[in-house]
Amino acid sequence: IADLDTAGNWAAIDADDGLIGPNDDVLFKDDGGDLVALALLDIKQSGLEGLPITFKNYPGDIPVIDANGQAAAVYSQAKSYLTFDGLTMKGGTTNAYVSRATGGAVVGITVKNCILDGTSTDQASSNMLYMYDSSTHTTVVIANNTIFGDGANGGGNNSDNIKMTYIDDLEIYGNTLYN
Fold it and tell me: What is the pTM of this model?
């Protein structure tokens, strides 16, 4: 699901190659250094109710997905039943994780045990976890994460750790927020 650039970093993380689907676990390993990926994880598939697609760290590893100048480290548009567990998402120019509900409701998004860490540039407005658009996000769980807003890293004054619009059935617990 990934292409390596000449330096050995992931140039792209292609989550739309037909290999990922409901009930799959996508495990990320660290490379023994600071970063695993310097690219946007653009999710193109949905899981199913009770059969989410789970993106998580390989046991014992601490992978980092660094947006490297992209708008976000992890992005999904109108995709449901996704779980993110144990990853570090380093924000791009504006966000660390973005979920858009465009063209219909997004259901079953879970972000747990993750670190969402600031943007890579000083922005007047940025959000570490951002769920938005004109349709509703339903059954959202945000649990046991550590979230460093852009303000924690010297960024803009309109930064939010968590920003959501049109949310129904939301659970937020056990998170540590820094701004």
Answer: 0.81
